[in-house]
Predict the structure.
Amino acid sequence: MNTCVAGFEVLCNEQNGTGAKKLQREAEFNRFFAEVEKRALRIAEISIRDREDALDLVQEAMIKLVRNYSDKPSEEWTPLFYRILQNNIRDLQRRRAVRARVMVWFGKDKDNDDFDPIAAVPDPVGRTPEEELQSDEAMQTLESAISNLPARQKEAFILRTFEGLAVAATSVAMGCSEGSVKTHYSRAVHKLREILGEHW
Amino acid sequence: MHEKSDLAAEDVLVRQAKQTFEESVERIDGQTLSKLNRARQTALSELTPRKSAITQWTPLVGLAAATAAAIVFWPTQPGVEDFSIPSIATDMEVLLMEENWEMLENLEFYSWIELGEDTIPLGETENNVS
């Protein structure tokens, strides 16, 4: 009888331990996502120029990270998360390119038909209209310049500058060597300076 | 010297780009933030271990197998079965094939004869045993 009670207590303790571990993991993921989600959304938005699609990609990246890498230490999550996000962005761009070709074939451009400029305007947060305008214009200029970069240079610049990833973490996120990251980043900055030099 | 100024200019560009980006992040509207929050909760719900497909379907598969086995191996009642379904089928066949429609008038009589034929062998068996 005593053995049974002791065994039950061990089982309960194990279950409580597993539950506590799960709650702790959940809290860690919650903190991590809360920290990166806004920047991740803007990064995705800059790359694909659509907020709703960007939201979908960020959610997809979050889910994939939790499903596939929840056993990894939390220090590794940032590059893994951005690697998933960049892959999702590339996939979507490929799908769009195919769709665009098909639409051109049928003589229709659905993206332009669905675009609502009023819905795309963000809400102002405690700024004067002049400040909003200036900031908006600066961001639009920057986004426009970034869109002119080759894909890999764009990724390197966005991850290094906007997310602040180190070279090693960027190489994990981009799936290439650290040397390649340095090259892509350097070329991206050089090109941006050429484009933005007169305005900035 | 020229290289140094280039690096400084690039540094300024990077800092300005970072600041502009951060400002755009701050301007994300409430509705979008709410959607982000929902996305995060959806992702966190993935942490709850889901039952594997095998565990999920085992009870249903077991129930289906038990039902199939019950249908196949359930002990039948030959008396009732032999008397009802085949006799109705035979009746319909006779009715459709027979040219003499007067038979319909004697349908009760034929049914009584058939009932008699079914019971006679049983009686004979009893007699043989005794």
Notes: Chain B touches chain A at residues 9-10, 12-14, 16-18, 20-21, 23-33, 35-36, 39-40, 42-44, 46-48 (CB under 8 Å). Chain B has a mean pLDDT of 73.
